[in-house]
Design goal:
The chain is an alpha+beta fold. It contains two helices and two strands. The radius of gyration is 12 Å and the shape is flat.
């Protein structure tokens, strides 16, 4: 994957929220590409919301 090469990451999280019930707040098509590295957070579970610890509770 291109992001692996560009950002030097080991994996990538791809997130798409479709509809308010899924957490979409901007109602047009957009995709979150989040580069990840081994041990970049203590617990990588939680997908897109789990990447930024301060955002996990919303």
């Amino acid at each position: 994957m291109i992001s692996l090469q560009i950002f030097g990451c080991t994996q990538t999280v791809i997130g798409i929220n479709t509809g308010a019930s899924a957490g979409q707040t901007v109602f047009h098509v957009h995709i979150h590409l989040i580069p990840r590295r081994d041990d970049d957070v203590a617990d990588p579970r939680g997908g897109v919301r789990g990447v930024i610890p301060s955002k996990q509770g919303y």
